[in-house]
Amino acid sequence: MIEKLLVLMTICSIALLTDLRKLMEMTSRSKLVYAGIMLLVLYASIDYLLVQELPDLHTLVDLVLIAPARAIVQALKG
Amino acid sequence: MMTMMKGKETINNMQMVFLFFGYLIGSVLIIIPGPLVTMAKNAAWISILIAMAIGILLLQVIIFLQRKHAGLTFIGYSRKLVGYWPTVAIAGLMLTMAFHMAAGIFLDVAGFMNSMMMPETPSYVFMGLMYIVAALLLRSGIEAIARIFSILVIIMLLFWLVVLVLLIPSYHPEFLRPIFPDGYKPLLLGTYLSFGIPFGEVILFALVLPYAGIKQLKGLNKALVWTMIGCGVVLMLSTVCTIMALGPFAAEKKYSLFTLAQLVEIGDIIERIESISGMTMILGSLMKGTVTLFAIQTLIAEVFDIKDSRMLTNPICLLAMLLAMTLPATMQEWEEMVFVVHPLWVGVVYMIPVLLLAAVTLLKGWLKAPGQQRE
After folding, report:
1. What DSSP string runs through B81-129?
2. Is residue B361 part of a domain?
3. B4 in a structural domain
4. In this structure, what CATH number is given to the domain that contains residue B77?
5. Range of B157's domain?
6. Cα B146 to the chain's mean position, in Å?
7. What is the pLDDT of residues B242-296, one digit of tens each?
C-alpha cells in the first residue's frame, strides 16, 4: 500500500507540477476537459490503491464483446 | 464549428512513412509471431498476407475520406457528414480501443522485461519511464516525433535484421511444411488475430493523416501502401524465420524474436545478443505507444475544440499509465483480451464507424451529382 501510494504520488506530481504554469493560462474549456480527465485519473488511482477491481473499460468490453469474440474464436478453432 | 487543420504543423511524405511504419509494426514484431504460430500453425505467414490485404483496403478508405474532405481533420469531416453528437459517439467508441492500446503497449513492455530480462524490477519502473519519454515526445509535437522516428525505425530494423541474418545457419526450411496441417480454419484464426494486431489498427492513423499537406495526398497513398506491404513482409519474415528456427516449439515461445536472438552463436565471439531484441521491443513500443497517445490527444482536443492539444498530454499519459497498472486482473485475462477480443473490438469501434463515414460520403456525392449535372 505504501509503495503504491509513493508510486502514485510520484507520477501525479511529475504530471501536475510540470503543468502548473500552463494550467493558469488555460481557457476555461481546456480546464474543464483537463479536470474531466483528472477525474478519470482519480477513479483509476482508487482502483490501483485498493485493488478493488472496480468497473473499468474491460468490464464494459466483457459485457458487450467477450461472448461474440469467444464464439468467433471457437468457431474458427473448430 | 468545423474542425479545420490549424496549418501549424505539417510533415512530409517520407516522415509520414516512418511514422506509419513505427505505428504499425511497433512492438508487434516481437509479440505477435509466437501467438500467431499457435493459432495459424505453418499457415501463419499466409494469414498475415490476407490481413495485410484487408489493412490496405482500410487504408484506402481513410485516404479516400481525407481526399474528399481535404483540409479537414477526422473529427472535422465526421461532424460535417453525420453531425456533432454521432461524432462524439464515434470518438467515444474509438477512445475505448485507443486507451486499451495505449495502456497495453507499455504493459507488454513491462511484461516482456519482467519475464525475460529483469524479473526483480517492478513493472511501474518500465511503464513510468516509457510514459515520460512518450509525454516528452508528444509535447515536442508531431514534426519532432516524425523526425525522431526516422532514426528509431532504421535502428529497430537494423537490430531485427542482425538477429535474422545471424541465425541463417539454424534455419530448417522443412519445418515450413505442411502448410495446412489442420485444414483452413487455423488460417482464418490467424487472419482474425493479425487483422486485430496490427492491420486493423490502421484506422487510428486517420487522425495523423491531416498533418500531411493537401497536395501530398496522392503521392502519400502510394507511399503508405508500400509501407504497409513492407510491414507485412517484415512480419511474415519474422514468422517464417521463427518457424524455420524453432519448428514445433515456435508455438510455445511467447516472445519468439527474443528466443531467436538467444540461439545466435557464431564462434565464441557473437553470442547472447538477446538484449538487441529487448531494445527492438522498447523502440517499437515507444513508437506505437506515442502515435496512439497522439491520436488520443488529437481526438479529445478536436471533439472539445481545444486549440492547444498539448495541454492534455500529461493527464492523458497519466491516465494511460494507471489503466496499464489496473486494467488486467491477471495475465491470463489480459491475453484473452488481446488475442480473442482485440480484433473484434477493432472491427466494431474502428472499422464500422469509418466505413459508415465513407458510405455517407459516397451517398452524399451521388445525391449531389445529378443536381450538379442539371446546373
Report:
1. HH-HHHHHHHHHHHHHHHHHHHHHHHHHHHHHIIIII-TTS-HHHHHHH
2. no
3. no
4. 1.20.1740.10
5. 13-354
6. 15
7. 999 888 787 777 888 888 888 887 777 777 788 888 888 889 999 999 999 999 9
Subunit contact B306:A33, Cβ cutoff 8 A: yes
ipTM above 0.85, yes or no: yes
Residue type, A25: E
Say whether residue B188 is in contact with chain A using an 8 A CB cutoff: yes
Would B149 be classed as within a structural domain?
yes
Q: Give residue B1's pLDDT.
A: 44
Quote the number of domains for chain B: 1
pLDDT by residue (tens digit) across B153-193? 999 999 889 888 988 888 999 988 888 878 888 999 999 99
Q: Give contacts of B351 with chain A, Cβ < 8 Å.
A: none
Interface of B with A in 197-216 (CB under 8 A): none
Domain encompassing residue A69 = 2-77
Assess if residue B345 is contained within a domain: yes
Mutate to test the interface with A, among B330, B341, B345 (most CBs of A within 10 A): B341
> Which triple of cell numbers denotes residue B74?
477526422
Distance CA B356, CA A12 (A): 39
What element of type H or E holds B6?
none
For the purposes of burial, counting CB atoms within 10 Å of the CB of B269, is it exposed (0-12), middle (13-18) or buried (19 or more)? exposed
Contacts of B93 in chain A (CB under 8 A): none
**Rg from Cα positions in chain A:** 19
Residue B99 forms contact with A (CB below 8 Å): yes
What's the alpha-carbon Rg for chain B, to the nearest Å?
A: 21
